[in-house]
Design goal:
This protein has 172 residues and is mostly helical. The chain is built from five helices and no strands.
């Protein structure tokens, strides 16, 4: 064996060894990367489950509040049979949806009550003004001027009807 052949053989073996070492380190790195990616995919799946549960719960909570049903997420098969993340999202969404509709409903009740009170006050005041032969002027009272939008709108309508009703009755 001559020196050049020995040199080529030793160089080839060194290259093969270096390749095997590099491939081994690369596979370890790949395995670690794979485990990391797998974990991220699991967390994305869990997040997706929680989001799906949230939106399902949000819709069911809104439906129950609109239908004036009691607060009960347990009555839904989605919630009872769902996994942990789905159930957490469903419950959070159900609470939020139920609260949104109830708050809006309660706000509307207050507004309707104010409008109704304004209508009653305006009706009485309109009849009184017509009875006392005063000109038509729904802006004439302090209560009207100090009232909010719903009260004032109700007052205007009530005043018009009260004034008109008394004036029409007097003509007969």
């Amino acid at each position: 064996m001559n020196f050049n052949t020995l040199k080529k053989t030793a160089g080839s073996m060194a290259m093969a060894g270096a390749f095997l070492i590099t491939a081994g380190i690369g596979s370890i790195t790949f395995a670690q990367d794979f485990r990391w990616r797998d974990h991220r995919e699991d967390s994305r799946f869990e997040q997706r489950q929680e989001n799906d549960g949230y939106y399902d719960g949000l819709n069911k909570g809104r439906e129950d509040a609109r239908a004036d049903r009691r607060f009960d997420p347990n009555c839904y098969k989605y919630f009872r049979d769902g996994a942990g993340e789905y159930r957490e999202g469903f419950l959070r969404g159900y609470k939020e949806g139920y609260r949104q509709v109830r708050d809006r409903f309660d706000d509307n009740c207050v507004e309707r009550r104010q409008e109704r009170d304004g209508y009653n006050d305006g009706f009485k005041r309109g009849r009184a003004d017509a009875r006392n032969h005063l000109r038509f002027d729904p802006n004439c009272t302090e209560r009207f001027r100090d009232g909010n939008g719903e009260y004032r709108e109700g007052f205007r309508q009530g005043y018009s009807e009260g004034f008109r009703e008394y004036t029409a009755a007097r003509r007969w």
